[in-house]
Design a protein that fits this description.
Layout lengths: L6 H9 L4 E3 L12 H18 L4 E5 L9 H11 L4 E6 L3 H9 L3 E6 L4 H9 L4 E5 L7 E2 L5 H11 L4 E4 L5 H9 L4 E3 L2 H4 L8 H9 L6 E5 L4 E5 L3 H11 L10 H6 L23 H10 L3
Parallel strand pairs: 1-2, 2-3, 3-4, 4-5, 5-7, 7-8
Antiparallel strand pairs: 6-10, 9-10
Helix pairs in contact: 1-2, 2-3, 7-12
Amino acid sequence: MAWITNPKLVAAVSNAGGLGVLGYCGGFPKPISSVKGTAEQIRKSIREIRKLTDKPFGVNVCPAADDAFGFSKATVEICKEENVKILIAAGTISVDEYKKWKDDGFTLIVREQNPTVRGAIAAEKVGADIIVATGCDEGGCMPILNNGTTSITALIADAVKVPVLAAGGIINEKFAKAAAVVGAEGAFVGTRFILSKENPAADIVKKDIMTTHPDDFLVYTHANGVMRWRTTPHKVGREGVEANKKGIFNPPSGNFFKGLIQGDLEASVNSVNNVIPLIKSIDSCKDIVNEIARGFI
């Protein structure tokens, strides 16, 4: 959910009884290239969230292995200074960093990029409070592994004692119930909230998602083979598919600010889960949270 969260969305989810999460570049009015500038804008977004809700919320971070320039490290420091208590650690499993973050007093939700049972057990051993089991049904940076949401949720829920959240295609009560049957105690939801009234994505981006036929999504590998995009069929996606055919597995993802916020569909991927065509309306975060929650009652 890079770029397509903001304080309004985060607060709306938390006020509805969910846990709103501020994603990378969430609430940024424009791209910022410096670590210091990024950290200070995260601070502004956190403070804006607090004006809109008194409920808990979290912030996305990633381990050092996925943070070459130090943006996430700086974000963690801002969270300490601003007394944000919940980190969502997405990416490579990093037990040493998890230990440190737990020692710093954070509640830790761990989401391994390519989720494995061994990774979940390792995270639990060093204090992870919640594990996210992400299937290749998801939008965003899809796992390169081919476990679907149901299978990886069942495997991880069987292996750990801490709560497990299912991620990937949890768009309504029906899919939430399916996740609950195999052991999930909740859902980690992204794509469905793009189609919310509070989401900052451009209207044309939302329309693009709702009008793309389910057979027309494009999937290509990027990040040197570590992950994949599923995207609506536009320039960046088509070029990514062609690059893969030539043995290139690190093609561009495009400019998210231009693509998702400003609405230039040719400028970036517009990445979604594989069942979002089943959603026919743009709804409030409150309605979305309430519907998905019913699947776990």
